[in-house]
Amino acid sequence: MARAVRQFICQVCGASQPRWQGKCDACNSWNSLVEEGLTAPVSGAASGPASRRKGRTFRLEGLQGDSAEPPRLPTGMAELDRVTGGGFVRGSVVLIGGDPGIGKSTLLIQACAQLARGGHRVVYISGEEAVAQVRLRAERLKLSDAPVELASETNVEDIITTLGQGPAPRLVVIDSIQTMWTGAIDSAPGTVTQVRGSAQNLIRFAKTSGAALILVGHVTKDGQIAGPRVVEHMVDAVASFEGESGHHFRILRAVKNRFGPTDEIGVFEMTGLGLSQVSNPSALFLAGRDVNTPGTAVLAAMEGTRPLLVEVQALVAPSALGTPRRAVVGFDSSRLSMIIAVLEAHGGVRLGQHDVYLNVAGGMKITEPAADLAAAAALVSSLSGCALPPDTAYFGEIGLSGSIRPVVQATTRAREAAKLGFKRVVSPPLAQEKTTDAKSAGERGDRPADRDALRADTVSHISDLVAQIAAAGPGKPRAASPRENAREGHGARRAEPSRSRQPADWE
């Protein structure tokens, strides 16, 4: 016999409190406690026969042994298979989150249609839309002929019972987990307790039946998947579907994956017939860029094993405010502050009285340190008014001492730049990857002519980058580097562009 126990559950972190209070003690969130009903054994039930049952023994195995590759279910969509590690694993659970209207349902209905046309049983259960609405989307995407089984249901027990009839499905899509509810929990759908309980029952069904399960999750205002964090620990993979409403491309990014890489991305383009795969994302991100405008630099970035070329735009303007503005889109604001400080202290570039705006074109979000050099080049170019060469790509990490530090997969970045017609890269020395260059090039099938046509200009200090950009300006001689000044007996201060050589804004 069980009775209901009233608890107050935090809708942010899932912590429980015996009584209501305005602030959660676990995550310091305000007004996040909601009263929910939990089932608990009555007094005296702990002394029953079930509680006195001894545990059973199980077999312990060593680290060595035959471990077969888990069977995968490729969807036929190369970008989606790239993120999942080659396809969905039998019995795996994938949680996909994204902003409303970003295209999650469109992506999943396309994947379901691909698998259903291949002869697999695929079930799509929507808790937010009626069957007629899903059919209208399929007609718009020209997918009505695919034998996908549809249903509009929110009760977890009814869903599991229905899926158990007939052959086990190969893929099950639940859209979304926040709308599901189970009768074992006395709480409203969407609460932390219901989400956790519903997800646990669905995951148990996937593990026992061998069906691949996809759970669609809502996101909060800051982009995190709504609901308790424990759901992300329960599933096998977590993917984030990103994109901007003003741009036509979408990015599927793997956040967690027990059966594949955790830093891969898949790039899609939103069209009238749904999401189309983008085989060459670099050409998409660089389309329509301004080649002769100061303040733009091309970054050779890495997203997992995929190299990407994106444009970094900077605007430096005199500030009329006491505290200059620092606005960032698609870049880490703390890292921008560090780059500005290094340019001030070791590059002789004065940005303290200027507003600084930095943007990664196309809506791409860059978080890796290798973007430091491209951001610094764009800032210096905008301040000096000197346009950077249009056939040059930049990558490298900037240290607090002003040194340019090497980054991983440097030759892969340079190779991608050469494929797109770039003739020059500005980066740290590439000597550390010289031994593996020939082997990796042979595996990828690159042409030697592409690598030979690319010229690498190495920089070891931030002042070397400033000197290169200053020398490219019309009528501006090359500025001396700090190392040259040190050899000539100058002070410890880094080289600073002279007033006679540089525009007034540099000072």
UniProtKB/TrEMBL annotation:
Keyword rRNA-binding tagged: no
Record's keyword annotation contains Protein biosynthesis: no
Gene Ontology molecular-function annotations: ATP binding; ATP-dependent DNA damage sensor activity; damaged DNA binding; hydrolase activity; zinc ion binding
Region Disordered, annotated ranges: 429-507
Biological process, per Gene Ontology: recombinational repair
UniProt biased composition (Basic and acidic residues): 434-455, 484-507
GO cellular component, one term: cytosol
Gene3D superfamilies cross-referenced by the UniProt entry: 3.30.230.10, P-loop containing nucleotide triphosphate hydrolases
Keyword list, A-Z: ATP-binding, DNA damage, DNA repair, DNA-binding, Hydrolase, Metal-binding, Nucleotide-binding, Stress response, Zinc, Zinc-finger
Domain RecA family profile: start-end pairs: 69-219
Record remark: domains: The middle region has homology to RecA with ATPase motifs including the RadA KNRFG motif, while the C-terminus is homologous to Lon protease.
Described purpose of this protein according to its UniProt entry: DNA-dependent ATPase involved in processing of recombination intermediates, plays a role in repairing DNA breaks. Stimulates the branch migration of RecA-mediated strand transfer reactions, allowing the 3' invading strand to extend heteroduplex DNA faster. Binds ssDNA in the presence of ADP but not other nucleotides, has ATPase activity that is stimulated by ssDNA and various branched DNA structures, but inhibited by SSB. Does not have RecA's homology-searching function.
Matching NCBIfam families: sms (TIGR00416)
The family this protein is said to belong to: Belongs to the RecA family. RadA subfamily.
HAMAP family assigned: RadA_bact
Protein name as annotated: DNA repair protein RadA
